[in-house]
């Protein structure tokens, strides 16, 4: 069989070389080393087979012997050969470590990194120092080793290591200073290390390297970016005349001839910009960076692949940058690249993420995307082989589906989008599942009656299954999606969803070990019981375990977000029948252990205005004038000290709270005046407003603005809550 | 009636003036050219850059002595680079690979495309010398794994191996692979890679300047008639055709 013959030949040749490596004669050894080197450079397969034959420890041994032999070298001829042996063995070891993980491991195991450092670069070998070849060879090999993820962590905290590093940086040789820069780029991770390096003054030398050769410039740019990354403190110390010089130097380099250098310079500036709000803020520089990166996308190689990621880091979370990018046709340019087809997965992922960032806050970007028919390409990407691409496609979809206009028009709730998305809920990768859940959470916020499409395609089953996952992130996101799905859903829909969920699952999720999961579960229940009176019945299913769970959580919870959702649940239930209202009363008046008063009093006194609002709503609904049992309930509330607390809030600083309290007080007074109940009703009708819900997710920061935006429903990323007042009016006007 | 024709003629004249290009006489042109000052140092640098990038070591050395222009590369490294280029051009690819690895072992390790093309050239040379068995073994052992790693390599490999299928290799569809031009292409690629690794630009500046000249002339052609350079070798000004 040809293959076997080939590898048999290879092994014979390999063994031959290894045999000669063990020879006593230096000439033979040297020749064998050179042959080995020439066999393995560029050839991954050969590297692997020589690795298996034990080449690395053998060569490391030769290097070690040669290094010690230098001391006892007595004539020039010997020196030369020993030097050559060192050079060649260093080159072999460096090649094994080049982009080949198994090789790096073997080299590190053989202690070769220390050998090379000591043998080629350290001061104590004066004889060797005069041989630039040896120094260069050593520096090259060490650089290869340090570029690997498995490289030993360089301990910057040790003084002698710092000194060694500085000596490397200050060296004339391009390879040696490159090694120094490489060590910084790959080993400097913590902010302490960044500070140490900054304090040691490496920046000065790195800046001067910016004016050096291409290789020095590139290496220096990477190192500078590493020192500043995510470290506002170090950036803030970067003041004085030197800063200006370095910054303007880098800004110049953004226009360099070489694409890779332009990319590295841009990345450097982005890092500095992101770490500190005071640098690089003028429009000129912003536009320059955006245009530069969009242009770099044209590069067909790795530079083009990475340019989109750099673009994302430039615009992510920054509305002003996204706007600027939109104005220079960023969306169109990204789309053009997407259209090219058969993209390298890394490039595909990068462009999708860039589009996701572009559309994260601006409606104009989303509209443009939709008009360009980006969706079609994104949906195709949902089925891509690479999980990173699938994930990125989901994030893109999530951003684009923040468009209220299109959500209302039902643009997303169709089979072409829903089917592949639902399929991803079953994906092998957790990250993809979470990303898909994010997209689904938005898409199911549908103001038409098309939710049934989603349910029909098996979406609910999968979501419920995921809400039972071991992974809390998945549980959380699955609940979010369900919460949005159930928002304003029709009765039939709600019933189907509830049947799948079951009361016991809901109750257990409300008591989930993760607080964020509890919050979502409560929000889900809030949406569930919202709407017509029949909806309230759900909470009483299975002997009211859900209501019990809600009450229990309210009594023990300490996180405001959970308390808010819980109170709104109770507030919604309190818009139901008499028995419902009484059940809420029971829950409220139940005291927790060691607590002298009802939990609602704590909420009424909370610093969080949202919580106060929710609490007052519950009181309002319980004491609604048109309900027969309200006066009785008012007495109980009064006895529990709740009424007096509400009365004390008449001058609450938050307008929302103040208005609710005003209404509540009027309601309390109305029990003396039956006429007032009709005007109260009218009063409440006028006050019908849409309410927003804060989401803990940092990507959406929608202010709660219920007064000025009457009847305006604003869709956020993960949840929309509709008004309770409108519901209570409806139920009473029946 | 005649008034009508007068108006027409006037309109035609106005149109002609708008469309006609500005004419620049040779005198004017040469005067303008003489007003442009170019330093001798810059010219020398361009020449040195060309000699160094293309690898004319002796010429560069001589030029340095005569003009005092310093090359931006160590002339010693040029010799090494030229040795590699020459080896490829002569078809001694194995020798070239050894030399490149001596010069800088990183180059082939970090340049998979270049490495593949060198190996491909080795295969071509084996086929050219009629060593069919060796060629097949080489293709299997050295090139097939590269093809597995990369789709485009696989396609090029298939093209190369196809050479073995034809009796009359010089006339087959993939016969261009046996051309000297293929060697030169590979040699050029190696040269460029070495230059890049030495932080030097891989293309000399002179051809870019000439391209710019031609482009500028093409742009100007739309707006004016002027003495043009049509033959780059002689650089003589040729009067515009009127």
Automatic annotation (TrEMBL), chain A:
Quote the protein name from its UniProt record.
Armadillo repeat-containing protein 8
List the source organism: Citrus sinensis (Sweet orange)
TrEMBL record, chain B:
Top-level lineage group: Eukaryota
Question: Which SMART domains does UniProt cross-reference here?
Answer: CRA, CTLH, LisH
- For this UniProt entry, what's an example GO CC term? nucleus
Q: Name one GO biological process term.
A: proteasome-mediated ubiquitin-dependent protein catabolic process
Task: Fetch the PROSITE patterns from UniProt.
Answer: CTLH, LISH
The record places domain CTLH at: 77-134
Q: Write down what this protein is called.
A: CTLH domain-containing protein
């Amino acid at each position: 069989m040809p293959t076997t013959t080939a590898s048999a030949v290879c092994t014979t040749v390999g063994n031959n070389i290894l045999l000669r490596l063990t020879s006593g004669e230096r000439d033979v050894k040297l020749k064998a080393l050179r042959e080995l080197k020439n066999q393995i450079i560029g050839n991954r397969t050969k590297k692997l087979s020589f690795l298996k034959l034990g080449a690395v420890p053998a060569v490391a041994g030769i290097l070690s012997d040669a290094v010690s032999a230098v001391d006892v070298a007595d004539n020039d001829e010997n020196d030369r050969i020993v030097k050559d042996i060192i050079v060649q063995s260093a080159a072999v070891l460096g090649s094994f470590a080049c982009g080949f993980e198994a090789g790096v491991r073997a080299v590190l195991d053989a202690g070769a990194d220390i050998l090379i450092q000591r043998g080629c670069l350290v001061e104590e070998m004066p004889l060797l120092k005069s041989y630039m070849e040896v120094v260069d060879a050593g520096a090259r090999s060490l650089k290869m080793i340090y570029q690997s993820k498995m490289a030993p962590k360089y301990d910057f905290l040790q003084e002698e290591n710092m000194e060694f590093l500085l000596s490397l940086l200050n060296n004339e040789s391009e390879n040696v200073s490159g090694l120094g820069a490489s060590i910084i780029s790959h080993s400097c991770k913590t902010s302490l290390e960044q500070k140490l390096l900054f304090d040691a003054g490496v920046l000065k030398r790195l800046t001067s390297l910016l004016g050096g050769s291409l290789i020095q410039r590139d290496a220096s740019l990477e190192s500078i970016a590493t020192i500043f990354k995510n470290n506002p403190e170090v950036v803030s110390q970067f003041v004085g005349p030197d800063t200006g010089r370095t910054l303007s130097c880098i800004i110049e380099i953004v226009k360099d001839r070489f694409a890779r250098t332009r990319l590295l310079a841009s990345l450097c500036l982005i890092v500095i910009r992101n770490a500190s709000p005071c640098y690089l803020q003028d429009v000129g520089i912003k536009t320059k960076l955006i245009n530069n990166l969009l242009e770099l996308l044209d590069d067909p190689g790795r530079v083009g692949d990475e340019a989109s990621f750099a673009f994302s880091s430039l615009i992510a979370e920054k509305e002003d940058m996204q706007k600027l990018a939109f104005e220079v046709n960023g969306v169109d340019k990204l789309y053009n690249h997407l259209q090219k087809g058969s993209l390298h997965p890394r490039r595909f992922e990068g462009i999708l993420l860039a589009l996701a960032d572009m559309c994260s806050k601006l409606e104009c970007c989303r509209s443009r995307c939709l008009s360009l028919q980006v969706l079609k390409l994104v949906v195709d990407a949902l089925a891509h082989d690479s999980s990173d691409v699938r994930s990125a496609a989901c994030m893109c979809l999530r951003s684009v589906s923040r468009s209220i206009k299109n959500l209302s028009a039902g643009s997303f709730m169709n089979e072409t989008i829903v089917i592949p998305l639902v399929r991803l809920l079953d994906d092998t990768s957790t990250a993809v599942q979470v990303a898909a859940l994010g997209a689904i959470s938005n898409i199911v916020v549908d103001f038409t009656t098309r939710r049934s499409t989603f349910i029909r395609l098996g979406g609910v089953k999968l979501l419920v299954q995921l809400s039972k996952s071991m992974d809390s992130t998945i549980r959380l996101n699955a609940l979010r999606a369900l919460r949005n799905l159930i928002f304003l859903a029709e009765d039939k829909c709600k019933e189907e969803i509830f049947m799948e969920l079951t009361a016991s699952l809901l109750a257990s999720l409300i008591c989930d070990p993760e607080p964020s999961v509890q919050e979502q579960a409560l929000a889900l229940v809030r949406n569930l019981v919202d709407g017509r009176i029949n909806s309230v019945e759900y909470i009483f299913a299975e002997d009211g375990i859900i209501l019990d769970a809600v009450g229990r959580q309210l009594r023990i919870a300490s996180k405001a977000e959970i308390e808010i959702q819980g109170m709104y649940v109770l507030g919604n239930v309190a818009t139901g029948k008499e028995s419902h209202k009484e059940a809420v009363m029971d829950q409220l008046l139940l005291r927790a252990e060691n607590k002298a008063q009802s939990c609602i009093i704590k909420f009424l006194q909370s610093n969080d205005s949202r919580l106060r609002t929710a609490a007052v709503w519950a009181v309002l609904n319980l004491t609604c004038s048109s309900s027969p049992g309200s006066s009785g309930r008012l007495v109980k509330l009064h006895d529990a000290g709740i009424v007096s607390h509400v009365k004390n809030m008449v001058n609450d600083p938050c307008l929302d709270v103040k208005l609710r309290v005003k209404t509540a007080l009027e309601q309390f007074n109305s029990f003396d005046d039956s006429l007032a109940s009709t005007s109260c009703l009218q009063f409440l009708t006028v006050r019908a407003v849409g309410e927003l819900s804060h989401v803990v997710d940092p990507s959406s920061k929608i202010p709660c603005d219920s007064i000025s935006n009457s009847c305006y429903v604003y869709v956020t990323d993960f949840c929309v809550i509709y008004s309770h007042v409108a519901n209570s009016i409806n139920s009473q006007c029946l | 009636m005649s008034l009508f024709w007068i108006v027409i003629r006037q309109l035609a004249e106005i149109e002609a003036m708008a469309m006609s290009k500005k004419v620049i006489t040779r005198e004017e042109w040469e005067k303008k050219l003489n007003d442009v000052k170019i330093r001798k140092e810059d010219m020398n640098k361009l020449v040195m850059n060309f000699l160094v990038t293309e690898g004319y070591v002796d010429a560069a050395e001589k030029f340095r002595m005569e003009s005092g222009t310093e090359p931006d590369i160590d002339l010693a490294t040029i010799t090494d680079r030229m040795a590699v280029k020459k080896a490829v051009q002569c078809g001694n690819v194995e020798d070239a690979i050894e030399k490149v690895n001596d010069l800088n072992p990183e180059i082939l390790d970090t340049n998979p495309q270049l490495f593949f093309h060198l190996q491909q050239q080795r295969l071509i040379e084996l086929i050219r010398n009629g060593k069919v068995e060796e060629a097949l073994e080489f293709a299997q052992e050295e090139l097939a794994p590269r093809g597995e790693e990369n789709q485009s390599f696989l396609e090029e490999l298939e093209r190369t191996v196809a050479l073995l299928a034809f009796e009359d290799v010089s006339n087959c569809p993939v016969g261009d692979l046996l051309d000297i031009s293929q060697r030169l292409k590979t040699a050029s690629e190696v040269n460029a890679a070495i230059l890049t690794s030495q932080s030097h630009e891989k293309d000399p500046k002179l051809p870019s300047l000439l391209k710019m000249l031609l482009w500028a002339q093409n742009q100007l052609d739309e707006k004016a008639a002027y003495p043009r350079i049509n033959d780059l070798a002689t650089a003589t000004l040729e009067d515009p055709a009127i």
